[in-house]
């Protein structure tokens, strides 16, 4: 599964990544829910795929992710997303952002498994039985053992599966990811588990599989650094992808951002992606250095073409 990433994995990125193959599922960026019911426009903005059966152009299902601290508004919004055809509803209990946690949402809820239970139950009850409700957590806020109670809450609430970003909120994004909590969760619950965190290569994946014993995995930053990672894991790609193959995706991404969003957005998002790609391919850093000073979209486009050629 491709991880949800706010400000990074929007529908254009989902379209680009799923064009390569190897991804079985995507999740939208989180939609923050306070006490109100969002308009349909909001759901379509975060998930334009709703108009295509909640799938990317390449047939990969997209779940709508909601984030909030109160069961009733979350249930109302989940019901609306389901009515609009969402392939599933994912509940985010892992967001570390200060503003989100201050307003009672994201990882702060991991301190109160009974509230997680209440939210999952209410959302499960609000959407049709055929719409999966899934849950994404970190190990805990600061205590990793909180994952055990929260996993039980997700299971009791009726979640279809549980994705665990194997770090606490306090760990932030510092390596390592503590994959060894996954077998401990499995001892306590029967809920299907998705392992997430620090999979950057096929070798990391194989280690994660061994340690966690999972058969479902979610990858975030590793897929932005190497968009072919899913195919490499599946064995569909017999070798590590070359910069030629990866670099060839960038102009299409820039063009799609330009056509469907706007020029300035396209420039900044393409720079952002080149920075991520540089973690997987040194050539991307060269390209980034050649385009980074260009702010005007036309100049940026020619610099990008030149750098990539
Ligand atoms: C920039 C950024 C934005 C993120 N946004 C979300 C989000 O909207 N919802 C969510 O559940 N997780 C979000 N995450 C967490 C990722 O989904 C994932 O759990 C985390 O990056 C660990 O996986 P990785 O090591 O494969 O990147 C975000 C992470 C990053 C780096």
Note down, in words, how this protein is organized.
The chain has 15 helices and seven strands. With 309 residues, the chain is α/β, with parallel strands linked by helices. The chain has two domains: 11-234, Aldolase class I (TIM Barrel, Alpha-Beta Barrel), CATH 3.20.20.70; 243-308. A seven-stranded parallel β-sheet has the order 1-2-3-4-5-6-7, covered by helices on one side. α3 (71-83) runs parallel beside α5 (113-126), α12 packs antiparallel against α13 and α13 (263-277) packs antiparallel against α14 (282-291). The protein is globular and about 55 Å long. The two termini are 32 Å apart. It binds flavin mononucleotide. The site of flavin mononucleotide has 21 residues, from β1 and α9.
Which descriptors would you attach to this protein?
alpha/beta, 309 residues, seven-stranded parallel β-sheet, TIM Barrel, single chain, 11% strand, binds flavin mononucleotide, 2 domains, 15 helices
């Amino acid at each position: 599964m491709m991880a949800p990433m706010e400000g990074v994995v929007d529908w254009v990125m989902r379209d680009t990544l799923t064009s390569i193959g190897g991804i079985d599922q995507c999740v939208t960026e989180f939609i923050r829910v306070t006490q109100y019911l969002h308009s349909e426009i909001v759901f379509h903005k975060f998930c334009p795929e709703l108009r295509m059966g909640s799938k990317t152009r390449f047939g990969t299902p997209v779940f709508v992710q909601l984030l909030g601290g109160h069961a009733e508004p979350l249930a109302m919004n989940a019901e609306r997303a389901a009515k609009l055809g969402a392939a599933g509803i994912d509940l985010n209990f892992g967001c570390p952002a200060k503003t989100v946690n201050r307003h009672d949402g994201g990882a702060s809820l991991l301190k109160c498994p009974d509230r997680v239970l209440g939210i999952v139950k209410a959302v499960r009850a609000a959407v049709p039985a055929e719409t999966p409700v899934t849950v994404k957590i970190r190990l805990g806020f600061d205590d990793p053992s909180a994952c055990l109670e929260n996993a039980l809450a997700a299971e009791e609430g009726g979640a279809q599966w549980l994705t665990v970003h194997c770090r606490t909120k306090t760990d932030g994004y510092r390596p390592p990811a503590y994959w060894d909590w996954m077998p401990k969760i499995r001892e306590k619950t029967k809920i299907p588990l998705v392992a997430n965190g620090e999979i950057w290569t096929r070798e990391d994946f194989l280690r994660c599989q061994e340690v966690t014993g999972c058969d479902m995995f979610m990858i975030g930053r590793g897929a932005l650094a190497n968009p072919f990672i899913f195919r490499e894991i599946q064995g569909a790609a017999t070798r590590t992808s070359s910069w030629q193959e990866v670099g060839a995706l960038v102009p299409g991404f820039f063009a799609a951002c330009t056509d469907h969003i706007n020029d300035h957005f396209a420039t900044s998002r393409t720079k952002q992606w080149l920075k991520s790609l540089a973690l997987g391919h040194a050539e991307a850093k060269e390209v980034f250095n050649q385009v980074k000073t260009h702010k005007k979209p036309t100049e940026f486009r020619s610099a990008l073409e030149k750098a990539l050629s």
